[in-house]
Every structure is written in structure tokens, then in C-alpha cells.
Amino acid sequence: MTLPLLIKQAGFVGGVDRSLDMVKRAKAIFSDAVSSGRAEFRQGTVEALPFEVSSFEKVCTVNTVYFWSSLDAGFLEIHRVLSPGGRVVVGFLPKERMGRLGMPIDIFTSRTPESVITALTSAGFTNVRVERPEPTTPWNVIVAIR
């Protein structure tokens, strides 16, 4: 699902990026949704999300776990901002695939599905499962419930 479609269909979308430039860009691109209160973009990190407790029913993050300083801290924060029964979806390429792509290790921290599952479980998530959009895809999509 693309961000424009999500903003169109959801009641509210909140976004976080560590880059102030990206936050400004998102606010400009989606200015109508921002001005109407349907979208909000804030600067921050997953380890210290700039949202209140139980702010969201769903959290989706794609291609970000490579940049987190701590899976444990990130998933604890996501757990904090999700309401009880809320769902988190994490999409990423696993470590074995990232290794084949030659991604620079000083920028990307490759993650195994097992490490993501362990961190989610440690943070208090339940019903943690790996889904694949297609059986042959290298993508991992991990879904869990708060």
C-alpha cells in the first residue's frame, strides 16, 4: 500500500523520520491531509517515538529495521504507542539477502527474521508470525499483536 492510498483510506496517519528534511518534504507533499488533521509527520527515532501511549491501532514499518540502534528499544516503543489489540507489521529483507546485495555494513545493520521475532516477543507482542507476499519472495513481513 502506498502512502497516498493509506492517507486517503485511513482516518489518521502518523509518520516519523529522523531526517527533518524528509519530515518537511512529507508535510509539503501531503499538506492537505496535514492541514485537515488526517496526517501528521514528526521528526524522531523509533527508540523514542514522539507520540502518546496507545496513539495507534496499527503500525507499519518497511525497510527501517536496518537503521535502528536497537530492535528491543524500537519494539518496546512501538508497543507503547499501540493500543491493546493493535497490530504491527514489519517488512524487510533478511540478513542473508542483504549480504548478497553488498549493502555497506557501516550504514545497514542486517537483521534475521529470528532476531526480529525475538525482539517483538521480548517487547510483549503476541501472535508473532512471518508472512510472505509470495512464496518465492525474499521479503519477510512479520506481523504481531500488542
What are the salient characteristics of this protein?
2 domains; alpha/beta; two-stranded parallel sheet; four-stranded mixed β-sheet
What can you see in these coordinates?
The chain is of the alpha/beta class. The protein folds into 2 domains: 11-44, no CATH class; 47-145, Vaccinia Virus protein VP39 (Rossmann fold), CATH 3.40.50.150. The protein is built from 6 helices and 6 strands. It has helices at 3-9, 20-29, 31-35, 71-81, 95-101, 113-122, and strands at 13-17, 39-43, 56-62, 82-92, 126-131, 140-145. The strands form 2 sheets. It has a 4-stranded mixed β-sheet with strand order 3-4-6-5. A two-stranded parallel sheet has the order 1-2. It is globular and about 40 Å long.
Q: How are the SSEs placed, and which strands pair?
A:
Blueprint: H1 3-9, E1 13-17, H2 20-29, H3 31-35, E2 39-43, E3 56-62, H4 71-81, E4 82-92, H5 95-101, H6 113-122, E5 126-131, E6 140-145
Overall average pLDDT: 92
* Low-confidence blocks of residues: none
CATH architecture of the largest domain: 3-Layer(aba) Sandwich
Give the terminus-to-terminus CA distance: 22 Å
What is the helical fraction, as a range of percent?
Answer: 25-40%
Q: At the third CATH level, what is the topology name of the largest domain?
A: Rossmann fold
- Largest sheet, order of strands side by side? 3-4-6-5
Number of helices: 6
**CATH uppermost class of the largest domain:** Alpha Beta
Largest sheet: 4 strands, mixed
